[in-house]
Amino acid sequence: MSQNNRFPDSSKNRQGNEIPRELAELGQLIVTLPNARKQELEVAFQRVVDSVHRRRRTLEVVQEALSQLRLDVKYLMFDLEATRQERDLLRQQMEE
């Protein structure tokens, strides 16, 4: 496996997702280690990178859900206000 492909300078993993600068720097430092410990650290490094990407995807899903929830609440508030106005209008008509 090529060292340059495993820890690219562009701070992106093989799927093209960006990783934090500090993590990319750590990957570059691992590349310079002697082979005895390098392979073990590469595996641990890749697990950390995968964890960072999973957390980022989870955060994106949560943010999207919150945005949808905010929109839904706005629609519900609009519907509630319209219902109240209709109720008040009907009460007026019944009293007349």
Give short descriptive properties of this protein.
96 residues, disordered N terminus
* Main sheet overview: none
Number of helices: 3
Radius of gyration: 27 Å
Number of separate strands: 0
Mean pLDDT comes to 86
What's the helix-strand series?
Answer: HHH
Structural class: mainly alpha
Which word captures the global form? rod-shaped
Which strand-content bin applies to the residues? under 5%
Task: State the separation between the terminal residues, measured CA to CA.
Answer: 86 Å
* Helix content range: over 70%
Low-confidence stretches: 1-5
Compact summary:
With 96 residues, the protein is an all-alpha fold. It has three helices and no strands. The model is unreliable at 1-5 (pLDDT under 50).
Helix/strand layout:
Layout: H1 3-6, H2 21-31, H3 35-95
Helix pairs in contact: 2-3
Description:
This protein has 96 residues and is mainly α. The chain has helices spanning 3-6, 21-31, 35-95. The longest helix is centred in the C-terminal third of the chain and has 61 residues, at 35-95. It is rod-shaped, with a radius of gyration of 27 Å.
